[in-house]
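Example record for the data management plan.
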Amino acid sequence: MKPNILVIRTNPDEMVQSIEEAFGESVDVITATTGLAGFFNYQQYNPCIVLVDESLPDMNGMSVATIIKDTAGGTKSLVYLFIEGQLWEHTRADRFISKPEDKGLLLKQLKTDIKKINRDKPSDSLLNAIQQQNDMLPKAISNSKFTIESIFSAYDHLSGDSINFWYKAADDKGNADKLYGYLFDCEGHTLSSYGQVGSTWLSMKKSMWNYQVGIYKSLADVLRAVNQDFVTLYDKLTLVPTICFCVDFRANVMHYAPAGIPYIHVKKKGEKCHEAVLLQSPILGYEMDSEFCEYELPLDDVTEVVLSSDGLSDLLIDHADEEPLEIAKNDDVSAIYIRLGHSSEDLLTVN
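Corresponding structural encoding:
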């Protein structure tokens, strides 16, 4: 599908002619001569670039640009705003062009942006993989005992990370009342790493199920089984930092077993910040005879637990011996956030 450009201008013909002369049939150009018509055309055609003139017959173009940027699809469109005077408060756009505009400079900027749009457009196979990846993510759970949520942010479309969690409520025989889950971090962010994410997710799910029904007696057994799969079934070295856990609400304790995940973060009653708990463990996939251990975290005075990949722990600033990275984000970021003793309604009133 060709990139499409929406021109919202009282007299758009001259600008349309310049764009068509510069780009030929490689782009489609749509026009609107009022702000309202611009909104309707924007909703109908979902243009990748919108050119908005400040002077429109029905409303100021600054309002038009800002409203478009604040729509659900506004982040996916580049909005150029052509202005002659000062900006109004809260005006939003991606490019601010002074009037009268330099036609040559404008066309160069359009060419640069369209090249980037074409280069960054994901393929159908990538879009399908992204959808499948998102479908694997668990939904938040909230009740009077706990709230569990997740953060999942891919570095570049697909993530090498994955997470899962589920709750088994207590039955009439007094069994269960446990929260299970795991998090892992495969190498890379591509379709090939996505294949490893899928196989690791299934292997962890199967082993955690064996633990849940009592076939495996500890979380260390879970990691041991998955590690054996990695070492025996993969032709190349497959290293996957992982952590799995089980929160037993009857015993008020969290069991967890790490495999190369560097930290968990724990917040206790009366404390403002999370404490980084250093974890030392072998990594999944390195060697067959790796020894994994299960640990216990008593929850009597714990209010929050965060389990994360190193993409998040590297960004946190509460590591006493480490300098924070001076970069907004350089990796996949995923985390499981457990808040104890609060429902989702409570979260709205807690600072």
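Summary line stored alongside the record: The longest strand covers residues 146-153.
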